[in-house]
Structure formats: structure tokens, C-alpha cells
Amino acid sequence: MPRTQIEPQFPTERLSILDSDGKLDTKLEPKLSPDDLKRLYRAMVLGRRLDERMLKLQRQGRIGTFAPIKGQEASQMGSVFTLTPADWMVPSFRETASMLWRGWPIEKILALFAGRLEGSQPGPEQRDLPITIPVATQLPHAVGIAYGIQYRGEDAVVMVYFGDGATSEGDFHEACNFAGVWHVPVVFVCQNNQWAISVPFKKQTNSRTIAQKALAYGFPGIQVDGNDVLAVYAASRQAVDKARAGEGPTLIECVTYRLGVHTTADDPTKYRTDEEVKAWEQKDPLTRFRAYLEKKKLLDPSVDEQVDEEIARAVERFETMPPADPLGMFDHAYAELPPEVAAQHAELAARLESPAERAAPASAEPASPPMRGQRRTSRWTS
Amino acid sequence: MAKLNMVKALNLALLEEMEQDPDIVIIGEDVGVDGGVFRVTEDLHRRFGGTRVIDSPLAEAAIIGCSVGMALYGLKPVCEIQFSGFAFQCFHQIENHAARYRQRSQGRFHCQMVIRMPFGGGVRALEHHSESEEQFYAHIPGLKMVIPSGPRTARALLVAAIRDPDPVVFFEHKALYHASKEDVPDESEAMPIGRAQVVRDGRGLTLIAYGAMLRVALEAAETLEAEDGVTPEVIDLLTISPLDRETLTASVARTGRAVIVHEAPRSFGPGAEIAASIMEGAFLSLEAPIRRVAAYDVPFPGFAREKATVPDVARVLAAARETLAF
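C-alpha cells for the assembled complex are given below, as produced in the milestone run.
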């Protein structure tokens, strides 16, 4: 019997609208209102400036380890911008800009990275999951939510974020496979930032793109210039609209770059060159979008200042939060505490009431041991 | 009253709950058209359709992971993992997410879901089809771990598990599926999770068991009464976690002696926690060291050697007699 072609060739497309030299493809330029463009830019600046502020807070020991987003603002804002409040957003752990856009207060994000459970509580109506730290394990959650949406016939979609490293995990495969079989309204947004801590994309997969992996699951994948907010927006708009119309999942690969550290415990000089970082700095998503807005006379020069002011006020609110009540660890462990756990709650309550504990509350405030290159401040040494 | 085996009793619980609550969905491998490899979900696909009784692709992590998502959304999934030996491929979804979401989200979300798994030996099945691994789940805060011992407790506990707002791992012993029939009430019935049952009143010794080991313990108790003149009390644990310390310590405070029987390997098994609880709650009443009769601490040896490691009546009798003679 002859060999026959059973699948047609699947082309994998790459979308770029505004390149790093500022060249614009006007035919593909999305129709965003001046107001939307301004809001997008402001949100990207907020993501960048908060990142910078958080690095300082971390170095001072005022928050713990976190994953900076610098360089990935366009991937996050171009995609999340297409959601409505009725839609669901499922982050991994490097989506600060997306989370801010979805309404997470800055002080809550700071609390989260200061090791406080309060920081991972979405608002009562907010359709966002908190961050997920084990890589790729949030992907099936997104598919399950999308199944629920389809089950109840609701008008909503799910957008789920993950990185290039996540695509090597079994949960990525299983989630994509289930999404394809169930044909549910989910948009997979991969921020391919080239590095999974120290392992480069080339060592992560022998696939030329992440986008093409979607084809094996029976739904479309597209690669976009992840530092081009217009391209990310255009691809996301199409994917979200398709999902909403009952046309199933899409995988979007945003090719971007983590300009900073993996987390504040990481030293990237061990595994990548300055030249590489500098080359990507030339493709900074904020630089080209700022130039684009300038041409359109939409750039408000006071944005940086406004954003810094917003951050400063939030940092103040964060710093004046009452200390974490140790008993809070029991509040949401179960719907109703089993007797043994209730007894443990009582034991801790009694310990907190003891004279020694009241004099020097060893269990009340978490000591933050300084990490490499980190200075202690008086607040934490007292 | 209807006389049902455990498969039919579980099926009845699923049917009754699904009729009451449209948010309940069933998901697993072969649970739909085939009715499950043990037929626990038989006929539910025909009754409720493929969107409520979901024949999923073969992938444990996504069965549990997607169920977590469904639960966060507001559905109440009842998942079937075909054999508990395969659950390590979804263990991370259970431990990292199902058990933690209430706390992580500070009450904004929770996972009302049941994870059903057949477990245990005695059915001449290959590796990964005969293990007893409840201890892994019992150790996870935020999760409940339930093991019924027969048709009536299976139905009543499954109803309770489905209604429980927290995630429940529900182990069904394969050797019990068709072992016996029991009267099951016509009206739906729920038993509280976290409560053990004294199934045989006695004095001088407490035998503590669950799942298929309950029959072993009861048989040993009969023999002890006939041959040794003691009337052991027998406790059916039913819930491994949260453990019913009150019932355990109250019993041993009266009897002074305890033997714990389980199919899981001995070291760090449920017996260790049970023994520690009794020590804490009834130390001054103890007349002898607490004994554990359990599987040996070796990887499951295959069914040709299974009988030598799974506790039987003779081993329980030997341990009980040593305890009584101490």
C-alpha cells in the first residue's frame, strides 16, 4: 500500500504589526480608540514601574521573592485587554500587569509577595484565580472552568497564562488535549520569554515554535511578536471572539523576553550574555508603543508621574496593614474545622495569649531573612 | 429496604444526588458508555447524557485538574480514578490545588469535589491494581479521606462526600464491590464524615479496622469470643481523616487494649496516627502496648504473594492474643 498524506500541511503564522524600528503595518493595525490606546499604555507603564518598585522593596526585605515582568508588558496587556469582567483570567506567577488590569489592588499583590494569604484572595465578584506556582498546573483548571462555562451555556471565555517552560510539562499536554476534545472557550497565552530560569528555549523543545503544538490538539495556534502590543491585542481579540462564538480554543505564543531576573533569588549573569539582553532591550515593548502614541499625539507625558503616585499610595497602604494574625492560618483551611484542627487552633490562640508571647511575639511577625545582596531595614531588625 | 451490593449502593448514591443537583458531574476514564470498569457509574450516562457523565481522555492529572477548575467555577465533580495505583499521576493536582484552594483564595473559591478510587488487594490483579495507599491522602491538610466497609456505609458516605463543601478522597475496596449484599434504606441517607462506628460492643480489647479489613477484624473477634472467652469491641473507622479520636479513645479507655488492622504498609501508616491518638487520649487506661497488623514495608509483591502480606484473621488473632497476654 502506498504512503498517503493524511493531514494537510499546517502553516504556522507569525503576526507582527508594530516592529522594534517603529514600522507599522497599517493594514493590520487594530481599530483601538484613542482612549483604549492610552489605557493600554498606562497599564503597561504601571506594570513596569511597579516591577521596579517591587525590586527595591524586595532588596530592602519588605517583600519576599517575586517574579519580575520587565519586558513582558505587551504580552500581558495586549492579551488581558480583550477580556470582559465576566471572563475568567488564570495567571501563572509572572502576570502582575494582567492582574493589575483585572482589578487586583497593588497592595494585595505586595501582600501576596510578602507571604500573606490575604494577597491571593480575589475580590468577591472577580473571576480570576490567584497565582499558581507549580508550573503548568493551572492549565487544566482553566479548561475545567471553560467546561463549566460551556455546561451552563454562559457567555464567557477563559484566558490562561503560562511560560515556555510550562509547555514541557505533562499538564500542558493534558490541558490542551482536553480543551481540543471538549472544544471549550479557552485561550492559551504562552509568554515565551526564552528562558525557564537558566534553560533556554532551544533546550526546552525541539519544536520550532510553541504555536505549532496547538495543531496536534486540533485547534489553531499563532505566534506573535510578544513585544508588539498591537499584534498581541489583534491575535487575542480574534482568539477571544472565536472562543466566545463557540469556535473552541486557540494557542497564542507571544515571543518576548524576560529582561530581568527569573525571580529575585536568581542571577542571570550565570547563564546568559549581556549582549543578548542588550539586543532584546532594543525591542522593549514600551519604547516602540510610546513612539507609536507620540506619532498619534496620544502620549500623556505625566503618565509616569501619575503611576508612581498610585504605587506610592498603595505601598503606604501595604506598609500600614496590620501584622498577619497567626490564627488566620486556620480561617480557610476547611469549611468547618475538624475537632483535631480546632484543638490546634485553640492551642495557638492560648500560646498567643501567653505572657512570654505577648512580650516578644516570636510567632506573630514573619522574620524576613535577607537574601543575597539584600539589606535589612530597621523595620525588620527590631 | 433493598438488598444491594456495594457497586449498586454506590450507583444509587450517585443517581440520587445527580437527580437532586444539576451541578454534579461525573468524570473519569470509561465512566460513561461503559459505566466504569467496575460498573459503579452504570446507566448514568444513558440517564444524564455525556456532558454530565464525561468519558474523559486517558489522563489522570487532567481529570483531577479540570475537575478542580469545574469546582472553582461552581460545579461539583465526582471524579473516578480507575485504580488508586494510577493516582500518582494526579497527586499534584490533589495536594497542590484541590486541598489548598479554599485557603489560597481565602474562601473566595473552594473545591467541592469527590475523588473516587478503587483500592486494595484480594482480586488477583497486577501491580498498581492492588495497593492500599490511603495514608498519602490522610496526611494532606484540607482534604478528607473516607473508606466505607460495605454497601450501606458506601452509599451513605458517598452521599455525604458529594455534599461536603471540601474535597473528599473516597476509597472503594475492590474486594468489597460484590462481596455481600446489605439492606439499604429506600430513603436517601447520609452518614457524617469524621465519625467511626462501634460495630461490635465488647470488653477487654478494641479491634480497629476499615475497608475490607473490617471483616477480618470481625471474624477474629468471633474466634476470640469462642476460643478465648473475650468479647472484643470492633470499631469501623470509616473516615481516615479527619480521624474520630473521640470514639477511639473512649473505647480503649474502657477496654485497655487495642489492635489496629490495615492493608497499607505498616510504617507511617494510619495505624501510627491511631496509636498515637490513643496514647494521648487513653494512656492511663492502657494495659498493653498497642499492636498494629498491617502489610509489610515492601513494594506490593504481586498477587501470588499477596496473601502473605495483607493481614488475615490468623495474624489478627496472634496479635490480639499477645496483647491480651501482655
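Chain B touches chain A through 44 residues (CB under 8 Å). The mean pLDDT of chain B is 97. Further analysis is deferred to the final report.
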